[in-house]
Amino acid sequence: MKPKRVGIYVRISKDRKGQELGIQRQEKACRELCERMGWTVHKVYPENDTSASTTSRKKRPQYAEMVRDARDGVIDAIVVYSIDRLTRRITELTAFLEEQKEHGFAFATTEGEDTSTANGRMILTIKGAVAQQETERMAERVNTSLLQRREKGKPHAGGPRVFGFEEGSNFQRLVPEEVELIRLGYDMLMNRQTPGDIVRLWNAKGSRTSGAQTAWSIQKVKRIYRSERVGGIVTYKGQDIGDSVYPHPLTREEWENVQTILDGRSGTKKPGTAKRKHLYSGFLKCGGCGSTMRVQWATIQGRRFRRTFCHSGAVGRNGELGCGKVNRSYSWIEERLNEVVEAALNHRAPKPTAAPAEDLSGEINVLEERIRGLRKRWKAGDMEDEDYFDSLAHLRSQLQDLRVREAASAVREARTETDALAVWRDDSEQNLERRRALVSTVIQEVKVYSVGRGRRKPPEIDSIKITPIGAEGL
Ligand SMILES: [Zn+2]
């Protein structure tokens, strides 16, 4: 069943990731994923959940509404940027996976968590557990008085001056001329100009860096736009904890836009992104000699196409040279194999579930309660540091055991194959390895026979011979 009506859930929170991922960027990435999958966005659920804590019991109305809509069939797919946008509570994740199983809606994240396999769901649940631990650790490290100050939107007063802010004003007052330059540079970046263009403009206007009063360089300009302070974002130990109450050169949204642009620019130059580019390379075996065939792009008379061939010049894995006798177009083979894989995934029945999930939430709650109590006593000074950390480590390892059991149990319970097809149909570049993994659940290998050269007619169907996994499966 192909999901058509998607609910996108975006969440802003006070964690590191939240800072890098404003609500608009999350939504944009989710919409792009939907487009690739051929899904329609029915509704966006924006949550302003600035607690970002697993201990907080704050209600999330948008989340609740979305799950209700999925239950009622108003939407039949949910897309989030990443699993920790959905939830940072493992119990909530477990509940979510149960809902998904019961109501059969599709679920996808732009980071490519694969909920179609047991392993994928296990990874998903474990990721959820890790996300929860991160927020707990963060809560522990927090120096309360400083945090309280910052939670009121008051940035830390220390540190060197940042361009745009008045010297000695503790980031509370701006320098209008510098703000003007920052805003001009912002408009330039939005109009596809580069940090280098900003360097030239700022230098030409006689502007100098705030510290050493030197001329601007690309690195220095980038550093300004990378600074959270410029977007009025208050951080505590690298965690985004809210917006400054004082004026700042860019709004949070503008600052986030800049991050997207700067990320995109560095991304285009990054080498080493070339990976396996063909879905079935490795699966194709020469019908003449059995060696693994290569797949390559070729350009002949200005036309670019893929071909697959038995390589006679290289020693194969078996130590022998290929026969070099088979050489043919790859796309026809790919189309045939796509039909086979799609059909197999389509008919694959959902696996019967194993034993019912263990309900460990009671035990987990008790342990969480004990940890909270411990923390309270330690904060109140009723406990030696050493005793505190000892007991904490002990309780935490018990908690971890329970969570792994809970996760494994949730995985067994919520296993579905419903969205394997959705994963399969996303033929974007980034999804290639996941699609190859799906291929390997269907196809063992494919013998490819020669069809002769220069033939105009499409090849005969038996010019390839597919060996499915487990042979009787197809
Ligand atoms: Zn061969």
UniProtKB/TrEMBL annotation:
Gene3D superfamilies, sorted: Putative Large Serine Recombinase, Chain B, Domain 2, Resolvase, N-terminal catalytic domain
Domain Resolvase/invertase-type recombinase catalytic: 5-153
Chain ranges of the Recombinase domain: 162-268
Pfam families with a match to the protein in the record: Recombinase, Resolvase, Zn_ribbon_recom
Cross-referenced SMART domains: Resolvase
Name this protein carries in UniProt: Recombinase family protein
